[in-house]
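Reviewers of the previous submission asked for a worked example of the structure-prediction workflow described in the proposal, so we include one complete record here. The input consisted solely of the amino acid sequence. No template or homolog information was supplied to the procedure at any stage.
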Amino acid sequence: MPLNAHQSDPAPKAEPGFTLLELIIAVTLLTLFVVPIGQALNDARIRSIRYTQARQVKSLAQQKLHDRINFILEEDEGDFEEEGHPSWGWIIDPPQPRSQGEQVVLEYTITVEVPFQLENGGSNSALSTEGSSYQYTTWTFPNEAWYEEQEYLFDNGMESLLYGNPDYYNEALPTANTGAGR
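From that input alone, the workflow returned the following structure tokens.
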């Protein structure tokens, strides 16, 4: 018997492939890096949707306020059904005169109510069922139509932002001057 016949093979040859330990480490590392990246992408998508919605609300609010200021729109409240958003509502407060000396500036404010959250109000839920509101305020010089409307209101016995309550003037003036309350 030859000497090397009794000796066993020095080491079994490894088969090609990965060991179980290598696979577990690879899957763990993948999970540690892929899951946070997926969550960050989802958060970015939600922020993008909210930003787009907020820009759309702001744009529609500015459009309605512009139409009301320029007497294109007569109503002071309504919805955005014509614009494709029937569940969105808006209210324009009566203009508030702000003056410095003899110059009059009107402050208009519109409030838009939407059935979703515009900003992250502390809730991490992407599908929040709470609605929110958006207010937009602008100042403008009154145009000739606004002055005519104020004069018409006052002359017909209604309160005017510019001239006030005609009853106040009628009570304070002698009966001969009742029509000249301004």
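Residues 111 and 135 are 4 Å apart (CA to CA). We consider this example representative of the routine output the project will generate in years two and three.
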